[in-house]
Amino acid sequence: MPEPIILIEKAGVRLGGVPVIQDVSLSIDAGEFISILGPNGAGKTTLLKLLLGLIRPDTGRVRVLDRAPRRGLAEVGYVPQRRVLDIELALRARDLVGFGLDGHRWGIGLPDRGRNVMIEQALEEVDALQLADAPVGQLSGGEQQRLLLAQALLSGPRLLLLDEPLANLDPAHQHEAVALIERVRRVHGVTVLLVSHDINPLLPVTDRVVYLAGGHCAIGSPQQVITGPTLSMLYGAPVEVVHIKGRYFVIGVEV
Amino acid sequence: MIVPIPVADYRPNAMFTLLHYPFIQNAFMAGSLVAIVAGVLGYFLILRGLTFAGHALSSIGFAGAAGAVLLGIPPVYGLLAFTMGASLFISSSSGEARGRDIAIGVIMTFALGLGVLFLSLYHGFAEQAYSILFGSIVGISRGDLSLATVLAVGILVVLASLGRPLLFSTFDPDGAEARGLPVRLLGMVYLILVALAVSLAMQLVGVLLVFGLLVGPPATAIRLVGRPSHAIIVSVGLGLAYTWAGILLAAWSGWPVSFLITAISFGLYLPVRLRGSRRSRCRMGAARALPSVRTASSRCSQQVIDDHTD
Predict the structure, then answer these.
(1) Which of B165, B168, B284 sits opposite A138 (nearest CB)?
(2) B33-46, pLDDT tens digit by residue?
(3) How many domains does chain B have?
(4) Does B3 reside within a domain?
(5) Helix, strand, or coil here: B291?
(6) Could you tell me the strand order of the sheet in which A6-15 lies?
(7) Is residue B172 less than 8 Å (CB to CB) from chain A?
(8) Nearest Cα to A37, choosing from A175, A225, A174, A178?
(9) Which of B40, B171, B272 to mutate to test the interface with A (most CBs of A within 10 A)?
(10) pLDDT by residue (tens digit) across A196-208?
(11) B274–A contact, CB cutoff 8 A
(12) How many Cβ atoms from other residues are within 10 Å of residue B89's Cβ?
């Protein structure tokens, strides 16, 4: 049995004295597509930051790629929740993507043909090659998200952490983004952890879901986790789940 | 009766004769040095949203220099102490831009207040204050110049070695942090470089021109070209052009150099800015539809294509 790519044992995190995550345990295998769900403030972003080594657990143990998480690992690609990219930002798409390749190396970069080829390959993988020379600040949210994904791919990650990549996208673009991420996962054989508010656009691709609420979490297939009893236990309040036409609707709480 | 105006005949020649005077040569060298360093540093200053901090550093430096004169020590020590202190304060109070600017505003006004106090305590200080504020670019010695050259080269070398990480963290601090870059430390080192440059340049050209050359050329450059390396080169080029033109015009007209350089800077920024805001309005639609809808025959979509193939 292969070693899980992510192993969290009884992890707890307090931010400013307030417990955000309590007693969370999960194990994720290489190549899985995991959707992380839960209400605002349930600790979804905190969970990603824990895996990135940006915050440390106060209790319990976290292992990523069989090591303690460490900042700046090339094997871990991260696309933060939609960053504010200024409308006046004087940067071309290919410059933004190029940061993924050598933005962390000291000194100034010299023009390099091989570098351009790699950047264009990454752009092509996210269907954004035609945007290569467009000013970043004037692209739509969805287009910027694709560039950030291309940037993350250039470090050659084995694990991709995507924070709310579907937020602010209409259903058609959500569908497109999910298909793109799934393609990247298959082509690169990466493990994907994707934070989302809504499971429905992810149902065709997700292997398992991690549902965070009230500081606790449940992990399993959507059918196992998104049920009235499981969610009622997590929220500590009565929750009903309606499953119609292959879509889930959670009733009784603000999700 | 028409009186011939001999002035017009010999003045342009006089302008070039002036170039033989050492004080004008020194002014050219000093101005060029400041334009180069400010052109590079200013590019990051604008993109990091630190324009106000740059202004504050120049003003705080004035108070430091005034204090040093009052104590009877060389102004450069006061300059360095005040600008370094302020840059450490500004980089430690990072976070939300608005909160940072409020803190900078309070500090800056206090520093200017201190400057006024020093001015009132020091008898016969007015002339010194004038030269710190508006510079005495034509009163620079060879000794000042060689020291300034060493400092300027040092600043540029450090800046070049920070290179890509500084650029990455300027455009995309979250991404840079996730990639393991020391984003806060980079910001602090950068501001210390600005403090050093401001202190160096204030000695040569005064508060007004330091700030003018830090902001004017890069503000125009980032509206002309998109690629960071090109924008920095254009920024330096513009700074040099403003400075040279300003000194030559000053020598010819007798008007103050600071006025001429800032006026040229403003005169170029204004049309570029106006053109840019008109273009970005129509580009908003065009860029979204890249590339298939680019064939639209409107003037602004043609401009988009031109811009993208720089």
Answers:
(1) B284
(2) 999 999 999 999 99
(3) 1
(4) no
(5) coil
(6) A18-28, A6-15, A59-64
(7) yes
(8) A225
(9) B171
(10) 989 999 999 999 9
(11) no
(12) 17
Q: What is the CATH number of domain A1-75+157-221?
A: 3.40.50.300
DSSP assigned state of B56: H
- The reply to whether residue A140 touches residue B288, judged by beta carbons under 8 angstroms, is yes
Residue B211 host element (H or E): helix B183-224
- The average pLDDT across B80-87 equals 93
Inter-chain CB proximity B290 and A91 less than 8 Å: no
- Beta-carbon separation of A91 and B228 below 8 A: yes
CB pairs A-B closer than 8 Å: 111
Rounded-to-integer distance, Cα B45 and Cα A164, Å:
31
Point out the least confidently predicted range of B16-20, B265-269, B304-308. Answer: B304-308
Q: Is residue B120 part of a domain?
A: yes
| A60 pLDDT more than 50 | yes
Listed by start position, the domains of chain A span: 1-75+157-221, 90-156
**Model's pTM, two decimal places?**
0.84
Is B15 within a domain?
A: no
Q: Give which of B51, B164, B223 to mutate to test A binding, by max A Cβ within 10 Å.
A: B164
Q: Could B180 and A139 be called an inter-chain contact, meaning their C-beta atoms sit closer than 8 Å?
A: no
Domain containing residue B269: CATH number: 1.10.3470.10
Vertex A218: Cα angle to A217 and A222 (nearest 5): 135
Instruction: Give domain status of residue B195, yes or no.
Output: yes
- Ramachandran sector of residue B140 (left: φ over 0; alpha: ψ -120 to 50; beta: rest): beta
Facing A91 at nearest CB: one of B171, B175, B307: B171
DSSP states of A45-78 as a string? HHHHHHHHTSS--SEEEEEETTB---TT-TTEEE
CA distance B154 to chain A (A): 14
Q: Which amino acid is at A172?
A: A
| Contact (Cβ atoms closer than 8 angstroms) between residue A107 and residue B163 | yes
Domain containing B251 equals: 20-308
Give the least confident one: B15-24, B143-152, B179-188, B189-198: B15-24
Which residues touch A192 (CB under 8 Å, ≥6 apart)? A32, A33, A34, A160, A162, A181, A184, A185
Tokens 């009235």 identify what position? A228
| Average pLDDT along chain B | 81
Q: Which residues on chain A are in Cβ contact (under 8 Å) with B227?
A: 92, 95
Residue B21, φ and ψ in degrees, nearest 5: -75, 135
Is the pLDDT at B6 greater than 50? The verdict is no
Q: Is B300 exposed, middle or buried (0-12, 13-18, 19+ CB in 10 A)?
A: middle
What is the rounded CA–CA span in Å between residue B117 and residue A161?
A: 56
- Could B163 and A103 be called an inter-chain contact, meaning their C-beta atoms sit closer than 8 Å? no
Nearest C-alpha in A relative to B273:
A88
Report d(CA A231, CA A225) in Å as an integer.
Answer: 7
